[in-house]
Predict the structure.
Amino acid sequence: MLSDIFRNPELKRNAWLELKPNRVFALLGLSTLAFVITTIAMVKEDLSEYFELAEVLMNTALFILYLITGIWGSKNAADAIADEINQKTWDRQRMSGQSPLTLTIGKIFGPTLLQWLGGLSAMLVYFCAALMSENVGQSFINGLIYIALVLLMNLSALLFSLLTITGSTQSAFSHAKINTTLFFILAVISVGWLSFYLALIGEEKGAISWFGLIWNNLTILISLLIFIGWSFIGIHQNLRKELQYRNSQKYWLAFLVFTGLYFYGFTWNLPIYLTDYDTSYIDPQLLGLNAVYYHLALVCLVFFLLMQFLLIFERHSENDYALFLQALRKGQFTKTWQHAPLWFSVLLGLTLSLLLLFALQITGLAKHQLPHIFRALEILQYQHNFAWSFLALIFLVLRDVLMTRTLLYRSKYKNKILSIALYYALIYWAIPLLFMIISEQNVTVENYFLPFFRAVGWFSPVVLAGQALVAWGLHRRYLRN
Amino acid sequence: MIEIKNLSFRFGTHRALNELSFTIPEGSITALVGPNGAGKTTLMRCMSALAHPTEGQVLIDGIDSSEDPHACHRLLGFLADNFGLYEELTVEQSLAYFAAAHQMDQQRVEEVLEQVNLTDKKKEQIKSLSRGMRQRVGIAQAIIHLPKYLILDEPASGLDPEARIQLAELFKQLNKAGITLLVSSHILAELDQYANHLIVLKEGKLVETDFSMDTAAQKDCTYFIEAVNASLLNSLSEPTLFNMIANEGETAIFSIAAGTPPHMALQYFLQQGIQVRAFGKHSVNIQDAYLKTIKNA
């Protein structure tokens, strides 16, 4: 296995390109300079204890790791395949005899070789300094957490860009250059935000409960490693597709089930609101069907957001759509899954979760109101017309599916992502806000900026009819053939 | 043999390829021609198992490219119009990379370098090479895994006349070495130098195929004669000396057995009382054939 990694053609190629002596020495020299400068600066402040010096060195090492491996490395990771496409070398790689696993390892670590060399050499200093720190064990785990975070950042950048790239190369006739800056920014922001959040958890012990388990540094590390594993599988599956292997979406479905279970853990100790969001507050453990109800609400929300993300970023090729619809019409189950876009499985999952959610509502088995975070789903509280509410949600989702698909594939706008952003701003912010103002609701500052969380009015018959009309029109225009 | 059966490819509602069916015989050099937007690149990508056809099949030696693209990739080499080169690598590094990717040994790199006549350039960075040389690196990359078929999209575009002649020679050499070539090009005169089979596409449809061009050997023994007294020419019975291919109006086209001196044929016509206006070698010109085909389509 290890010898296979060293024989990896992609790693070798990148080593020829990246690990040139002048670049390596310049990088290591700069890192050393950063350590020297920060140490001298801190020594002036009269470090009384040697563990304070250790702290300074550790923080500098983390800064270098974030800057070089995290940010620079993620940019390279996002560009790993986009650059190949832009330079027209990707087809040659797609036709080469490399296995998806070889290519996955090559594409993750190849373009980031220099950055990992810089980051890991800084972390070597970190671990040496950790030996002098107050809590050696904790510092070691923290170091590993940050390495895992930076790796996750790299993997996310590559995965996000692949979501867009895979569809484009399957079509492969677009001469437009692929720009991955957006995916790089997305990865840095999302994983950077996660690091910030984790740092807060580290300070406030017991801040997160998951299936009743209070999170500590070790559980955070394990959780990160699991998501690294999923990201790796995601990249591998995308590259399999690029290499013309057939994917059955089984890993994707497994990921969705995992996501459902994973997020279930966070609803374990959520407070229950009996009548009003602010007044009647009780905090028992959720039991029985109420727990399922809460969980389903959270899954719906996660699936809904995931689907929106995929709708925007997943570029399923036109030809794949044609093959997908063809197989769907003919009832060819296996082929349908082979050519289905990822959002399709999420849509099915969402529909199923919503159906169960409504079933619990209708039967009256779950009696409590939704927690604050699910206010967008307060449509569920319209107890007297479940069918209507269910249809409204399905049409809402379909409208987004068709609108994003149209804007991505059919519109003549140059900046398609911007046009989609405008659409989302209109549909999830401007229109709800308008409805709130018309209905003279108490428009607070919070509601001004997040009217989505107050789903008033926009499920009204008029809006619903409009959504149905849009869905029908787009279906007629684009999907009938 | 490459077989294309009812091949269609769609971009949304637009059909880039429309139910194409044809065969490329083994050992041929096939020219793929057609106006811009005819679907040549799409067809080549489908044939190279880089794009999945919406309908139909591409069979490479009987292997369906949709069912087993990897087996097809082992049999195929593909050179896109832009060559697809790693500019920063040296020629040797680039070939070593693709050799490793195809699980070929280093010895193969030396062989290919020699085959495309680049041995003396192997230590040079690709970006420092001329377009003609870069083209050779591209071909070397495409044949590193000893493919049986080589598909080339606009290989001569941007090359100077000398480089084009050298490229034509290289194609003939590769063909002699047993590689079947499919070449798309806009430069029809250049295709005429090496192609012996023609496929014409227009708006995703097949306009002409199975149109065998004269091979170099055939070109050497096919002649034409133009006569003033056409009726006498047309009434000639077929002599044993040569095969009459066409005999209409004032022109007759015929082939003579290899090694037979052409003046004997001319002597025969003169003996029959034909008043010769012109006599010479005849070859089917791709440019004429293409224009005629497109015009009739």
Notes: The longest strand of chain A covers residues 209-210.
